[in-house]
TrEMBL record:
Classification lineage: unclassified sequences, metagenomes, ecological metagenomes
Domain GLUG: 108-132, 195-218
Pfam entry (one): Glug
Alphabetical list of InterPro entries matching this protein: GLUG (IPR011493)
Protein name: GLUG domain-containing protein
Length: 246
């Protein structure tokens, strides 16, 4: 039986037991995270929420949001990689989770929902809105995926900024992608280096079907696209309508 999460403190406590299954019991206002974990070397600056799952200890359970919304989540960790509500997952299931007015800053592998996905993970019916800023592997929902993951019916309206490679409105970078189906990104995207896309910055394989992007895309280097910056996947029934500069 899944553990019911009813507040932001319980949401943070998922990191203590990353192999278990959880579900949201109600909407959660995470505004308190803006004053969590003060930087001891810089008083008045806060790191905020601590991402669930690390590169060493990935989240392997399940989170079912039950259609509830987590609002005002703050993560300010510009020198840390694996940043998002989940820092890193492996073979996990994340579904029916909505993030609203989030403010997420990280280094490599930064996304509002998940920093990095590994294993045969399943992500479905999830969304994000707010801002995501990072260095490389930066996405509005997921930073980087190197897994046989299936992502369906997900969306992001986040404004996304990446200062190095692989920046995307939904996902920054994908490798070994299985399926990306009925997904969208509507936020503006700016990438300083190569591989910048309205939906995905870089993808090497897999299937992208019935997806779209409508945000404006600006890339300061090479491989810039309204839908995908560089695409090695089989993309069908997809479109992009935002302005592209780069």
């Amino acid at each position: 039986m899944a553990i019911v999460i009813s507040n932001v403190t319980e949401l943070q406590a998922m990191e203590l037991f990353p192999t278990l299954d959880y579900e949201l019991g109600n909407n959660i206002n995470a505004a308190a995270t803006s004053l969590w974990n003060e930087d001891p070397g810089n008083p008045g600056t806060y790191f905020g929420f601590d991402p669930v799952g690390t590169s060493a200890t990935k989240f392997t359970g399940e989170l079912d949001g039950k259609g509830f919304t987590i609002s005002n989540l703050f993560i300010g960790r510009p020198t840390e990689s694996y940043v998002g509500l989940f820092g890193a997952i492996n073979g996990a299931t994340v579904k029916n989770v909505a993030l609203a007015t989030c403010d997420i800053t990280g280094k490599s592998y930064t996304g509002a929902l998940i920093g990095r996905v590994a294993g045969a993970a399943t992500i479905s019916d999830c969304s994000s809105a707010g801002t995501v800023d990072g260095v490389d592997g930066v996405g509005g929902l997921i930073g980087e995926m190197f897994s046989t993951a299936t992502i369906t019916d997900c969306s992001s309206s986040c404004t996304v900024t990446g200062t190095e490679y692989n920046t995307g409105g939904l996902v920054g970078d994908t490798g070994d992608l299985e399926v990306l189906l009925r997904c969208s990104a509507t936020g503006n995207v700016h990438g300083t280096y190569d591989y910048v896309g309205g939906l995905i910055g870089y993808t090497s394989d897999g299937t992208i079907d019935k997806c779209y992007a409508t945000g404006d895309v600006v890339g300061d280097a090479d491989y810039v696209g309204g839908l995908v910056g560089s695409c090695g996947a089989d993309a069908t029934n997809c479109y992009a309508v935002g302005d592209v500069a780069g």
